[in-house]
Write a structure and sequence with these properties.
CATH superfamily of the largest domain: Gcn5-related N-acetyltransferase (GNAT)
Distance between the termini: 52 Å
Low-confidence stretches: 44-58
CATH class of the largest domain: Alpha Beta
Number of helices: 18
CATH architecture of the largest domain: 3-Layer(aba) Sandwich
Number of strands: 12
Radius of gyration: 30 Å
Largest sheet: 12 strands, mixed
Shape: elongated
Length: 578
Amino acid sequence: MTTTHDLAEGEVRSERRRRARIAVVVVWSARIVGLLSIFSVFAPAARRRLEPMAWFGLPVEASLVGTVILATAGVGLMLLATGLRRRKRRAWQLAVLMCVVIIASHALGRHPIPPLCVAVVLLIGLLLTRREFDAVPDSVGRFVAVRLVVQLLAAGFVIVSAMLFFVRPSFLVGRPSPGEKFAHAALSLIGVEGSVEFRLDWYDDLTAAVGLSFGIGALLLGGYFLLRSAEPRPQLSAEDVAGIRALLDRHGAADSLGYFALRRDKSVVFSSSGKAAVAYRVVTGVALASGDPLGDVEAWPGAIEAFVGRCRRFGWVPAVLGCSETGARVWAREAGLDALELGDEAVVDVATFSLQGRAMRTVRQAVSRIKRAGYETTARRLHDIPETELATLRACVARWRGGPDERGFSMALSRAADAAADPEAVLVVAALEDTPKGILQFVPWGTEGLSLDLMIRDPAVTENGLNELLITDLLAACRGLGVAQVSLNFAVFRSALERGERIGAGPVARLWARLLRIASRWWQIETLYRFNARFAPAWVPRFLVFDAVRDLPRIAVAAFEAEGYGGRPPALLRLLRK
């Protein structure tokens, strides 16, 4: 039986599909108009010189200026297509301006009629669909764009002017006036040759190249910051934290990554009922969520709708790292997103784990060797550890880490030994002669599970087997802690590595596995897989959820920055979030 709620959801999906079709038509129309405009200027078969009509009384230089402006408008319109696809209001405004420029340039010159007609049709279409482009622009980007454009144009003008004023007189033809030199420097910024003539061609080319480089740089950087999606400073309010904890208390056992929604550099959006939520962080215009939505599975569609709606409003690219198969199906059904298997999570069942048997021989030997060296371990909840000892352990982590943050986003809290924030977390410490040498931190996974958050040790430790000792002793202590299952490290592309090793594997599978091994020299892909496999875990597939294949490179860059493997410098981030 069809309910009113089902009908409302159907109408929402229908409206979403309609708006998506409009965006696709406008995007491709913009690309076609931009391409035709460029073709009309530069293609040998179709080019017409942009000669002004005699009755306009324009100077001869206007033809070259008009050609440059037309080509720039065509390129700009093609670049604006990405912003139009995300329905950004500012991209729509600039696209209208570019259409007007292209139409005026064709009307003043002797260019082919088809580009002019297509540009007119696009302009009419943009005006008729203006309400579809409602993504909120970045308020910070506007001021940064204006400042950068002014600074770059001023710098280019000053440098080229200095090159003209301080050049040897023998390089110049005649004695141009200061006004002519200033005009020449200004025109060089748009690639137009001024009235100053040079006896040396290379110096003429040099001044033109310097001016045009600053002009292009101002156009590209200004356009980027003007069109960039908003990137708010990530943070969780006290109300957000309380709402997340309430959902974790009721449904925390559903997802081993749920607790990581409490990272302080995440934001959260709740469903209208408050029974589900999606935690995310915005990086380079990508809204990265991690794990499954929090809360009741029945309420997930409401949280997904709220998250996707926020992405559409701010022009963000939606993506989810490490969701489960159930989560991927719900994202696909509710938001129309696609899924790609990203890797596998290693989950160890405490009841069946044992160090006995041939398969565990390597782990058993490593543990025995490190114990003979005198290492001892303790596994306790944070609320059972004295604050003085926690302070010592935090200092150890900071010293061993050597940086402000631990790598990780989807499976890391980026804080250690914080009993006030994570009282139920478990800390496993390996010590040698009462001096900490290695630490593991596990966060709660419901009431009967743990998820590995932090694995760090003293860089001065040379003995192998310390991590194996920490994990096996934690598994041995789990029964006393009331823990039934433990989630270890996430193994990226584990199935691809495994398929490439099988007898009879095809050339594509072997090549992909070989490429992953090469990448492991920098990102420990194979190393983590081999290490996790030692504990005979159950492999739980995790997925990357995305909107379109063309977004994957952008999502990959955002994920690398979020996970701590590189990205924009802190100074740039402070500039973008003022």
